[in-house]
Amino acid sequence: MIAPLPMVDTRPLIREIDAALLDLLRSLAPDGWLRPAVGGWVVRDVAAHLLHGNVRRLSYDRDEPSPVGGTPAFDDLVTFLDTTNHEWTAVFRQVSRRLLIELLETTGSLVSDHFDRVDLGGPATFSLVWDGEPSSPAWLDIARDYTEKWHHQQQIRDATGRPGLAGPRYLVPLLSTLVRATQRAYGPVAAAPGTQVSIAIDDLDRCAWRLERGEAGWRIGLPDDGAPAAAIHLDADTARRFFMKQVAAREARARARAEGPPDLVDPFFTARAVLAR
User: In a designed cystine with 33, which of 44, 154, 217, 255 is the match (CB 3.0 to 4.6 A)?
Assistant: First the structure.
């Protein structure tokens, strides 16, 4: 039986990427804020969306219960997020760039201070949802916030032609969190107990995992000595773009190296770790 994935403490990284984002936003000329970033959003919309994430975290995790009453069903949550994201960014187009930066700085610091007080092994306010599990530990909920913050600041960097926060320090914890989305993707896949699917990021150390079919369903864990029935190999850039809906499944499949029967390979390319933009 494969060993479960270990805890990843992303709190120091969240402080780092928040500080780097503020430096980037302060350096932008006015037209840089209006560069197309994702979908119909420009850079300032993505910055406002990051502020929205901070405000939601403080309001519903630190202060009061969520108005949506816990973790909604997957499809309901996607609808809720799409609606509230649109409403928030529309309102914040009336807010100055300077004030937006100041609000990001203040709320980001408050979120990190809150995370520092959280019992990492305790229950999360919200489950990860896209990993297919009914509940999550607090550390994994924080890691989900890390993936969101990293993802959206990278969209701003891509839009403005700035270098990304790459390298193992940022990408290993990022991908080690995102890969959990494969559990939900393989949920309906029938296989004999003990069947394994290997997943590896070939250009990063410490980024290899196994999906294993147990009596109760599929679980993601660390590699063991067993022979996998299927194997999927990707590079780090393709993997993070695929999980975060920046690369279509067909393109990711073309970039990947996959071995094994299609019924064990194809479900991987339905995994997604971003519910909205």
Answer: 44
